[in-house]
## 1
Amino acid sequence: MPRTPPKLALPVLGHKGRIDHMATANEEGTTTTHLVLAWAFVGIPLVLGVLQTLVNAMKLFQ
Amino acid sequence: MALMSFFDRENTVAKPGFSRWMVPPAALCVHLCIGQAYAFSVFNLPMTKLIGITHQTPDDWKLTQLGWIFSLAIFFLGASSAVFGRWVEEGGPRRAMFTAACCWAGGFFLSAIGVYAHALWIIYLGYGVIGGCGLGIGYISPVSTLIKWFPDRPGMATGMAIMGFGGGAFIAAPLSVWLLARFTTATHIGVAETFIVLGIVYFFFMVVGSIIVRVPAPGWKPEGYVPPVQSQKLITANNVFVYDALKTPQFWLIWWVLCLNVTAGIGVLGQASAMSQEMFPGHITPVAAAGFVGLMSLFNMGGRFCWATVSDYIGRRNTYFVFMVLGFVLYCLVPYTGSIGSVAGFVCAFLIIISMYGGGFSTVPAYLKDMFGTRYVGAIHGMLLTAWSMAGIFGPVIVNYLRAYNITHGVPKAQAYNNTMYIMAGLLVIGFICNFFVKAVDARFHMKESDAENAAEARAAGARA
């Protein structure tokens, strides 16, 4: 019997671009900027590397 | 002292307002760096000409000697994750990530000294032993933290991090080639300088990850998530102590499932280029084969995320059943694609096989969490990675020796891999049987409340000391 996991709670933007997740008192509030910077920090090198590999892989079909 | 306490688990507890979506990038900071291990072969040829520069002299290192660097690193990955697993779990992810950064970068710096002094044993010690420990500690450091932040999607969360390990080579290979070109002159090969730059870059990335990472506050759960009160058939709500897990048949059954799945994949991964050219002579050129290997790496990485995410929906045990059954069918089909000259069929079969190889790595932490609970899942995962070390020896040996045996007995090169494919398919049948016998862990292995309190006190005492 397949299990149905609960709906995944995605980041929701609150006032001033703040991510509301844990509580209303934002003592260590994660902003959208924090998230974008953190994901870009790891995402940009990874995407560049993947694109480079894809370009090389295209030689298989030439 | 203040700096040391910065690494304590207590100081990594997230305050209200922290988004759990900051944790996967923190994990990726570590896994993308240690994934460089898959691209170490980039240095093999330049390191065989450090003295001769344009050609290999008798004093230069041989490829067979250099091959031990990677093997040592993978061996110490498994060994250190098994030995330090409990320390990683109890010390918290920040301390573990920082330690991994020091070992990984330190391994590169020591290797640079080894290259400069032309002393291979220093590189064995640097990249192989110390770097290998960085690999092991870094690999398991974010696993249990991610599972605790994403109790609603543990497979997806760990899949994201372990995908980074597969993707690290995509960054490391072009970066290393570029750095080598920058530092190499007519009279000098710039391996040592490249190692130093890589060590600095990786240390910076991994430290950023250790600063970002947080553990959830006790009792925290995602908005709208209702944890199951009672254990489901194959998902426990209890915890099993790390060393008690070793006494359960479930641990060893999953150990064999992982070992067999990895053995089947790792053997063909290393030989994909030669195999594709020998099975399709004249159709797949060396350049096309290199493209095929790149495509396999992409599917290895993508499979880590996709299969682990799928496991959140169909269950971990069912996901491994898919790996075993689909893998069996595809391995049996590979010789047929060779006999009818179907390059497309061959490529598709191997891309799916390699995606399941990656999926095997990324689904296993969530499988362990289902069986043994979240409390010691990182440490138990560390113990399980010894299966990887074992598979790293068996897989290539089976493929290489069987091919050599077939060729010396007059089998044409195009058909030399057929027996190997059937043996791989047979290994997956054994894996299927092991997976079939995985049942819920007996209640006598579950931790009592008092055990959990004692463990928490011991951890607190350790932190104070």
Note: Residues 26 and 50 of chain A are 37 Å apart (CA to CA).
## 2
Amino acid sequence: MRTKTLRILMASLIMGLAYIGNTSAQCDSIARICADNVTADYISDGQSYRALLNGDQVAEFRATFYGGSTYRIAGCSGFTDGNLIFEIYDEDHNQLFASSDYKNTPYWDFEFGSTVDCTIEAKLNLNNVKSGCAAMVIGFKQ
Amino acid sequence: MTKSYFSNKWIGFSGALAFAAIFMVGCVSDVKKDDGGGDENAAAVDSSTTKLMSIGGSMFSIPSPIQTAMLIEKSGSDYNKQFLNDAKRVTTYATNYQKALNLGVYGADVGYVTIYDQSQDAIKYMGVINKLTDELGITGAFDESTIKRFENNFGKRDSMLNLVAVAYRNADAFLKDNDRMNVGALVLAGGWIETLYFTTQIAVKDGNQDVINRIGEQKYTLNNIVKMLTPYYNQPEYDVLVDELIELAYDFDAIDIQYTYEKPQVDIANKTTKINSRTDVVITPEHLQAIADKVKTIRNKIVGQQ
């Protein structure tokens, strides 16, 4: 009995660690592919944004975009375009952008005339994927 | 007797590991559901999340120190080495807490010196950053080849800045992948504090309105930094830093920020949206001085400057 319990626990441990390892590796690959959307004329903001999403879950992150800058925001999940939908809201929750309005474009540019505090929400395009790693990349130019 | 003790201990250890693994896997999908109603709280990510998920309910994007350094250069302010952390101090940072914060500090400094085309200083700071990433066990971000590529791009300012920024992004990814988000948060906080330090010093000296406004806009980012660090409040040294930042936030509360929404304009052909909303900042000279003084105290403590 004890041996059987131990085996189950060990199997769970191995599967769990393997899952986590695979997820990290998958996220790394997706983030690298996503970064290709942010071309050399944009400077990276120096951060890596990732979330593991399942079904209709939504990942949220807060960002301040400076006036006088143009930003490129790229969002990806999986290895093909259009798997991630991202939306940008201002501090009063006015929608400033939704990638779903533009065929789930994997990237878009934003010219900020003035500094704006924003929330970015990212969710899976359930027509294409049911779960996976969501990666976002931000670059800027002035 | 010994065998029995070992078996029980082993089972307990295995069980704990298995439980931890199951718990971690279970948490991977621990994100709130989208109710489709556009409710802000409903869209938030649950705080009990894994290394791949958000921090304290949201992920935080801390603006790049490079952007503010660019604004300073554009304002006409002269290069001033006195505002930067001395590279020689790197040997005095003993704990991971100090190393992580100063990795952020030196990242902001290398951005500043690169923008002012101070190549020799930039190389010196890159060496210091390489040392700190090594000591923190961050692999795949800064190494000899990064420094070599940096040197090979002398004269191409944006390429040099991007090399540094991508290296910091790789370090950030490494820390998140390895469940060391507390270290990542310190790196971001250190970079932000150093940038705010030299920005406030320059603003007090030069009085440039664009630079002063940029300081006022840090009210948003300061709130995000505090939220980002708060989950680690019970760890040694973090509590003091968070308390100091909360004290600083009281000074920022005196800054008046008015936000006005304007409808964005879309240029589909160029995949561009122009954001027309406005944020107006009002900050008095007294408040600016108070913030500058407090930031200087926090920053000097971090870098170990008397």
Note: Strands of chain B lie at 59-61, 256-260, 265-267, 272-275, 278-282.
